[in-house]
Structures are given as structure tokens and as C-alpha cells.
């Protein structure tokens, strides 16, 4: 059993895979349960956070297109966020989420929505760069893999929207925010796409 104050990241990821709940929600549940995964699942289920994964397979074809203009018209963002029903798309929670995501894109300038959108050649190129940097720094072969994976996680956190720290609370990711709203509204919620424009910048 993990110590409450030191829950391994791998256990947190495992619980997230099992429940679909946000990373921080999983970590809090594991801390409360003293590291007991089964008890943590129950805690998440009681809070309505463990059903998000079940909803992920359901079709989200409704939603909103939200626009946000920042910096006296110098940056503009358009995002599409989908829900399963028009009823949910009109709720304050959903509208607020779409607005927050548009503001996130304006502030943090991500390149992709999710990790699945990052081209394989880009990931391979980043891995090669990180490995070469580690070798040049004299790091031993037995730690190269961990170093590369750590740097790749940082890359995702910088350039992938759902992996980015939420601008209002950087202890949570954008994916955590989306999962929390999905739990509240009881539907699959999907960030479909975005476009970001900066005045004078070529597309």
C-alpha cells in the first residue's frame, strides 16, 4: 500500500485508466484511501467522477463554437466543444467550459488538442533530440529512457491542449477540467478543434 503522502504517479495513472476521472481527482482519492485503489474507485464513484470513461464512447455531435478575442483584438480564438445533447450544450457549466478553453488557447498557444493528434514523426523527432541531449550531457544508458520520457511529458504539457496546466489552477490539466464538467453534466464532452489567430501572423 502506498503512503498517503507519496502516491506513486503510476498508481494515479492506473486509477485514471480504470475510471476516466481526472488526474488530480484520482490523486486525491488515493490519498484519502491511503493508497488503496479499490477504495479510491469507490470514492470517485460516490462523487460521480468515475463514470466519465464510460461516456467517452458515446457520440458527441452537439455543442457550441465559442470565440474569444484577447489583447484589444490582437489575438483571436475559435473553439468547438461537443456534447451529446443540445440541452447540455445550453447549460452554464458547458458554456463556461467552452469559454475557459478558448481563453486557455489564447494564453498558452497549444499546437494540438490531444496527444493522438501529434504526428508520429514529430514525437520521433523530439525523442531523438532528447536522447542526443542526454548523451551529450554524459547520462548513462540505463537512465536515458526515463529522461526522454520525462522530457516528452513536458513537451506534451506545453503543446497539447488537454495536457496543459489549466490557466486558472495549474495543479489541474485541461483534461481534468473537461472530465469534471462531463461528470457534472452526465454526458461525453469533447474538445473537437480550435484555431488561434495573432494579428499579422501568417497561417
CATH topology of the largest domain: Tetrahydropterin Synthase, Chain A
Order of helices and strands: HHHHEEHHHHEEHE
Low-confidence stretches: none
Largest sheet composition: 3 strands, antiparallel
| Radius of gyration, whole Å | 19 Å
Supply the CATH architecture of the largest domain: 2-Layer Sandwich
- The overall average pLDDT, rounded, is 86
Can you tell me the number of structural domains?
Answer: 3
Shape: flat
What does this structure look like?
The model has no long low-confidence stretch (mean pLDDT 86). A three-stranded antiparallel sheet has the order 1-2-5. The protein has helices spanning 9-19, 23-32, 37-46, 52-55, 86-89, 92-108, 120-136, 141-159, 174-185, and strands at residues 62-70, 75-83, 165-166, 169-173, 190-198. The chain is α+β, with helices and mostly antiparallel strands. The termini are far apart. The protein has three domains: 9-50, Ubiquitin-associated (UBA) domain (Helicase, Ruva Protein, domain 3, Orthogonal Bundle); 55-114 and 160-198, Elongation factor Ts, dimerisation domain (Tetrahydropterin Synthase, Chain A), CATH 3.30.479.20; 119-158, GTP Cyclohydrolase I, Chain A, domain 1, CATH 1.10.286. It has nine helices and five strands; from the N terminus they run H-H-H-H-E-E-H-H-H-H-E-E-H-E.
